[in-house]
Design brief:
Helix content: 25-40%
Number of strands: 9
Order of helices and strands: HEHHEHEHEHHEHEHHEEEHHH
Oligomer: single chain
Strand order of the largest sheet: 6-5-4-3-2-1-7-8-9
Distance between the termini: 34 Å
Shape: globular
């Protein structure tokens, strides 16, 4: 486990406190997307497919602080788009740190070298560098040569300056377990705190739909990877039971409220992975108005192949609090890589056209928020 013990204990205390107060849906990580504009056009993402007027929108510092105050989660994952394009990002990060929130600033690293001086090392701040495998694999994923080498250089610089650094790795079709194992060995040599690893989700807006893994092949791939990691001290920035779930040894349902998303449209229903399900004007409205029973594996066809940490990590963390001995066993022995896999949840799809009806951008009714535009930030690497 790569997450520092103090951070683990604080999150556990937070969850237990919520449970003692009788709360059932507990937000664990605020997924903040303060802008959609990016300086890359990755094959597995479709955020920059929005019209220019949407890409020019930004959440203000005040809106970002309001989001964490509404939500109350102990962790904030700032993504996008590319968050370093946002001119107020240093102030936003300082604001979260002042509230003693653990901040994971997700970045493709292209702008980090020249903007690193805007940030100070802190136990509450982690640079989460997007790196989808070795040089050839990553550069193909982000559709630009040379990005891998840039990431490696920036990771080394950030670590030299005393920053917490993790790697965010998404696996797609065509992955070979041996290559992923080599990548994990390299990441450990870089000295990063840990790797957040997950199978990709087939975003409806993604320019390519043939790159995403199916559920069964995801489980077998992770079993093969973990088998190659036997005896190695790989550090993952994830719970032991979530890793065991990836290997097909745990049966979890998604808990999307564990990672609620706030973006330029409002609070996204039910999670940041599904497009066109609507937005709520406040966190309270999100929790009360979202028809949670309509989403999840076996319930909604859109959720069929999802095993992403944003939906299942919270499920695994809650299970770890209920069954700490099971979490400890998985942490000490690692995920099981042989034997039968845990059966999938039964398919109970509801016959409802609304479950699969796509929504156009023009149909989205965003929350009533105030935006500002940083026209000059378009000139990025």
């Amino acid at each position: 486990m790569a997450v520092p013990l103090t951070q683990q204990l604080r999150i556990s205390k937070y969850i237990l406190g919520k449970k003692l107060r009788g709360e059932q849906r507990i937000p664990l990580v605020l997924m903040l997307e303060p802008l959609f504009r990016c300086n890359l056009a990755c094959s597995g993402c479709g955020k920059i497919d929005y019209p220019e007027e949407i890409l020019d929108k930004r959440l203000s510092v005040e809106e970002c602080m309001q989001a964490i105050d509404e939500c109350g989660a102990p962790v904030v994952s700032i993504a996008g788009g590319e968050p370093l394009i946002h001119q107020d990002m240093p102030e936003i990060v300082r604001g979260f740190i002042a509230k003693k929130k653990y901040v994971y600033l997700c970045t493709n690293a292209l702008l980090l070298e020249r903007r690193m001086a805007d940030y100070s090392p802190s136990p509450y701040l982690t640079f989460s560098i997007h790196l989808d495998g070795n040089r050839d694999r990553h550069d193909a994923s982000v559709c630009r040569p040379g990005v891998f080498d840039k990431c490696i250089s920036v990771i080394e610089q950030a670590r030299d300056k005393g920053f917490r650094v993790t790697i965010n790795c998404t696996l797609f079709q065509g992955e070979k377990a041996a290559e992923v194992a080599e990548f994990m060995d390299m990441a450990m040599e870089l000295g990063v705190e840990g790797v957040t690893i997950s199978p990709g989700y087939s975003y409806e807006r993604a320019p390519r739909q043939d790159v995403f893994l199916k559920r069964k092949e995801s489980k077998q791939l992770f079993r093969d990877i973990f088998k190659l990691g036997t005896g190695k001290k790989w550090r993952f920035n994830q719970s032991s039971l979530y890793l065991d779930f990836l290997a097909g040894n745990q049966q979890y349902q998604c808990t999307p409220w564990g990672n609620p998303t706030r973006n330029v449209f409002g609070w996204q229903k039910p999670c940041y992975l599904l497009v066109g399900e609507g937005y709520a004007p406040s966190f309270e409205a999100l929790m009360e108005e979202t028809e949670w029973h309509r989403y999840g594996n076996g319930i909604n066809p859109k959720c069929a192949n999802c095993m992403v940490h944003s939906g299942y990590e919270a499920s695994a963390v809650e299970d770890a609090i209920k069954r700490p001995w099971q979490a400890l066993k998985a942490a000490l022995l690692g995920p099981r890589t042989t034997g039968d896999m845990t059966p999938e949840l039964p398919v109970l799809y509801v016959e409802d056209d609304a479950l699969s009806k796509p929504s156009l951008v023009s149909e989205i009714k965003p929350a009533p928020v105030v935006f500002h535009s940083d026209k000059q930030d378009k000139q990025v690497a």
